[in-house]
Amino acid sequence: MLQKNQVPSLETPACGTAEEAAPLRERSRFPAGPAAGSIMSKDEGARKMKLDSFKVACSSCSLRELCLPVGLSAQQLERLDSLIATRRSVHRGDALFHVGDAFQSLYAVRTGFFKTCVSAEDGRDQVTGFQMAGELLGLDGISNDRHTCDAVALEDSQVCVIPYSQLEDLSREFTDLQHQFHKIMSREIVRDHGVMLLLGSMRAEERLAAFLLNLTQRLQARGFSPSALILRMTREEIGSYLGLKLETVSRTFSKFQDDGLLEVKQRQIRILNEDGLRRLVNNTSC
Question: Where are the alpha helices (DSSP H) in the chain?
């Protein structure tokens, strides 16, 4: 039996708490203007401003307590700042990377929402996870230097690019960073175990209840409401992740609403009876 109030872990690597809802404060890393007497064309100036706008500093990021830098000293953060110097924007529906792409970097989600998926033999996409701000993408590529899944943005998003070879070098120098990275890897294993529990022993109602509880817990850690959320993924994508048909997901949402557990308005969800959802999950034998 699951312990009281315990929800199967479905989360991707994340830890701590943060106030993502607060304005993102970013330390200025703009270099001083051009030397006196130098001339910069309008196009060159525009390109420079665009490059500078993608600079990012972990030490001033509001997600630092959810991401890789958690627990690092000021000196270590400064070194990490020099490593994580760029961000990348990914538009909704675009892929951050594809199956088979060469693995070079990890990506920390700064804003937005992603799904990871693989193609089944029949050509359908199988969703393997959902990632939000403060979580890492790209861990799948470490084992054989190739990505084994697609990472697709579910809304316009930004990621911090972390070159893996440089991260390894810095981890050898800073044991705190190495320890944190190992914790993230461990959480990925725990997440996989949570998914196995969902697919192996839970009924449809229990799967969806566990999914919603886990999602709200992760959002609450980022400063959002613990009871109201907007689903960034479709019901079909939820079904793919939970091993359920679309019709089953829709029917279960309707049942939860009829039972007074949820208020559902398309993708807007309000949890009315969290204890009722937890009772569904905690009745699961394992």
Answer: 42-53, 74-83, 164-173, 175-201, 204-220, 235-242, 246-258, 274-282
Please determine, for residue 148, whether its predicted confidence score (pLDDT) is greater than 90. yes
110 DSSP 8-state letter: E
**What pLDDT, in 10s, does the model give residues 47-104?**
444 444 445 567 777 777 677 767 777 778 878 877 776 889 999 999 999 999 999 9
For residue 86, the tally of other CB atoms under 10 A from its CB is 14
Task: Classify domain 193-282 at the CATH class level.
Answer: mainly alpha
CA distance 132 to 134: 6
Pair 241, 128: CB distance under 8 Å: yes
In terms of phi and psi (left: phi > 0; alpha: psi -120 to 50; beta: otherwise), the region of 48 is alpha
- Per-residue pLDDT, 85: 66
Give Cα 198 distance to the centre of its chain. Answer: 20
Selected from 3.10.20.310, 2.60.120.10, 2.102.10.10, 3.40.50.300, the CATH number assigned to the domain covering 42-191 reads 2.60.120.10
Quick one: angle between helices 175-201 and 235-242, nearest 10?
Answer: 90
Q: Which residues contact 218 (CB under 8 A, 6 or more apart)?
A: 11, 14, 132
Cα separation, 221 vs 223, whole angstroms: 6
Bigger pLDDT: 25 or 126?
A: 126
Determine the Cα–Cα distance for residues 29 and 208; give it in Å rounded to an integer. Answer: 44
Q: Do domains 42-191 and 193-282 have the same CATH topology?
A: no
Q: Is the pLDDT of residue 223 over 60?
A: yes
Q: Domain residues of the chain, as ranges?
A: 42-191, 193-282
Distance of alpha carbon 20 from alpha carbon 16, whole angstroms: 12
User: Which of 273, 188, 135 has the alpha carbon at shortest distance from 9?
Assistant: 188
In the predicted structure, residue 254 carries a pLDDT above the cut 80:
yes
Three-state secondary structure call for residue 186: helix
